[in-house]
Amino acid sequence: MSGATPRGRLLPLPRIRPRTAVVLVYLAAMCMNGLDSTIVNPALFTIAADFGQPLSAANTVETVFLVALALALPVAGWLGDRYGVKRVFLGSLAVFTLASAACGVAQELWVLVAARAVQGLAGGLLTPVGMTLLFTTYAPHERARLSKVLIVPTALMPALGPPLGGLLTEHLSWHWLFFVNVPVGAAAVLLGAVCLVERREGEPGPFDRTGFWLATPALGLLTYALGFGPSHGWTGPAVLGSAAAGSVLLVATVVHQLRSPAPLLGLRLLRDRAYGPASALAALTAAGLMGLLFVFPLLHQAALGGSALDAGLIVFPEAVGLMLASQVVDRLLPRVGPRWLAVPALVLAAGVFALLTVDGVAQSAWLVRGAMFVTGLVLGTAVLTVQLAGFATVTPPEMGRAMGLFQIVRTLGGALGIALCAAVIGGGHGTVTDAGPFRAALGVTAGLVALSALLALRLPAAAPEPPPADDADSADADEAGEPADGTRAAA
């Protein structure tokens, strides 16, 4: 019998190597997290109608996710160093999956909002710890080849969110926006529990309690103000108070982190010639991309009369452009260098964003599809370039805190982009049917991307030299299940 030993016993299934398992589990988890950042956007009208609430109330579903995510980000690096990245990553993934199921069965808006908050807390840990797991498993010289993996959760999934959200909402129900996570998350947790190797790259040191009690409420309050400012009014007591308190706490956080011998956040890493500009660019590009993906589905439904599915499908060609970008960045980056690969790409992206503001362009489906394809191609190139170049000089012991800080600035950037666009549109006070405010909001996204092109001039002209690795042969490390860059793997 095929597949059996001479004694009639079945041959054991081939074991997935730890380095391969890292990629598979990371990809599954980050796709879930990235998709959830935009998949709800086309369904907000439907969710509001189902619960008998105004659109501004349904928008709480998205805002609370971003606030909770921001609350968890400051401690992600320390938790990974203290308890191990495998344990924290799989624990966060399990909670994220269970919270997705709770969102799917919610019959009241407050239940959906509460479950979404738990999702955000788990997602805030999931993203930086997952990136730490990936980047400590693969050495800097190997990461360019991972661009095909990195592009999927960081840029492709947010682009796929609107069409998938529209499809599920129109043909099934908005509940399935969350149910789709459950089988993927369960399979990823099982695979990770069996195949991943525990890693502790940096010394956790004492927990920075002062930094925690400053940074966590600062990020939460600022994200709350950015999320609710457009719909509740920027001068409302809750929004204004949150913005003021968050800003004061943020300043205090920066002062404390720069003085602390064992800071919770690695703010000193911002002095690095590659990581510093890359972090700022991550914030600006996230603001532009998230703003675009927020505005266009609403423009297509509210001002142009399209359905939720149409609103999602109209931006789908961006995903195709992103996939093509992931095929060439690993070849171009060593030859062209970060600066001269990112700057032209961002200039072109800003031009395409500006084109969408021209009267008549948004009404032409084929013009929009072409613009979205080019956006995905050039913005995907820039996003990957920034991410790969920014972490090329970060050492394994610093990776956890570097990833946490990177995700903080990128998350705040995305929240700022959405808030600015929502404020320009009108923020949910009634129904906006005129295309003018939406075009103005798209102009804001074009300005953000143009500003990022100027900032990209600070990137190194040549690819930065990676930190030295102890293991010269990554193939041997792969077979042994060890990280390729010489870091330790704990049993």
Molecular structure report:
The chain is mostly helical. 72% of the residues lie in helices and 1% in strands. It has helices at residues 18-36, 44-51, 55-58, 60-83, 85-105, 109-137, 140-143, 147-171, 176-179, 181-195, 209-232, 237-259, 275-303, 308-313, 317-336, 338-355, 365-390, 399-425, 435-455, 474-480; strands spanning 198-199, 489-490. Strands 1-2 form a two-stranded antiparallel sheet. It is globular and about 55 Å long.
Q: What would the keywords be for this entry?
A:
491 residues, mainly alpha, two-stranded antiparallel sheet, 20 helices, 2 strands, globular, disordered N terminus, disordered C terminus
Give a quick rundown of the structure.
The chain is an all-alpha fold and 491 residues long. 72% of the residues lie in helices and 1% in strands.
